[in-house]
């Protein structure tokens, strides 16, 4: 019996153990003979490893498993924020940005020192690795707007990927508590920034990378932690990571009581520009990501349900939605198109 990652599976191999999905459902039973389609399905379901009855295979390298997983997740996140159209094509500047940033991501993700930290990030809690991947992708999209050269972009990507590594030195129950921490617990939590800086410097990461771990909770108006820096005294990497960090936190509903929809998170960032965040960084962010990719099914404030059919015109928060169902959930004979950038009283209330 050998343990393999899906990439190393071949048609004809026989499963030595049942494969379960993340929700515990049986995906493929022991004894199943693998076909190309089944192998593709395992990859799609992001199954890490499976056991097969085959003597002529190599055993799994745990580092490869995590690098593979982080890589495919990162490309998926990049594709979410720089999406393809409904025919699967990325056009014009979106394609160019996707192509160049996916190359940068490759370099960031396969870096040996960065990859060494994936398991630590994964074990902090259920969110930290995925959060780090999203913060990395969003930071690169912003760094690209600032026209950082390739070397700086790679450094920014690494900084974003490992910005929360100091959390591994904070007791798990304090991380898990999220809100209502005692002053002592808050202090211990805030110290993840210092721990991160020291861990990264000990591993001989560049100081610009370690600095982002130290200062990503500083705020433009000086109200953040850990040194109460303000304005441009906070380095650009930290200012960029801060915006990506908060956007992902509020849209995931981590450490904030309310979970924001993408346009709500963007409005929050707009409002906080030059208060908590560098307004230029916020602009780079809101002007370059697609909060609602084409094909997103959304519920409007009227109760109607539609599909996002155009995002070119007003890239980020207010797409054009084709309404297919009225508020009583009856399918419309004649779907109507609503341009949310023009109909300001309407807004998206839910992604379905
Ligand atoms: Fe943090």
Description:
The model has no long low-confidence stretch (mean pLDDT 89). The protein has 3 domains: 2-60, Molybdopterin biosynthesis moea protein, domain 2, CATH 3.90.105; 63-286, Hypothetical protein af1432, CATH 1.10.3210.10; 297-351, no CATH class. It has 352 residues and is of the alpha+beta class. A 5-stranded antiparallel β-sheet has the order 9-8-7-6-10, with no helix packed on it. A 3-stranded antiparallel β-sheet has the order 1-5-2, with no helix packed on it. Strands 3-4 form a two-stranded antiparallel sheet. The protein contains 14 helices and 10 strands. 34% of the residues are buried. It is globular, with a radius of gyration of 22 Å. The longest helix has 20 residues, at 62-81. The site of fe (ii) ion has 4 residues, from loops.
Task: Describe this structure in a few short sentences.
The protein has 352 residues and is an alpha+beta fold.
H/E element order: EEEEHEHHHHHHHHHHHHHEEEEE
Sheet having the most strands:
5 strands, antiparallel
Attached small molecules: fe (ii) ion
Indicate the radius of gyration in whole angstroms.
22 Å
Mean pLDDT: 89
Distance between the terminal alpha carbons, to the nearest Å?
Answer: 42 Å
Query: Which structural class should the secondary elements be placed in?
Result: alpha+beta
Percentage of β-strand residues:
5-15%
Number of helices: 14
The helix content, as a percent range, equals 40-55%
Which architecture name of the largest domain does CATH use?
Orthogonal Bundle
Q: Looking across the biggest beta sheet, what order are the strands in?
A: 9-8-7-6-10
- CATH-defined topology of the largest domain: Hypothetical protein af1432
The CATH superfamily of the largest domain appears as: Hypothetical protein af1432
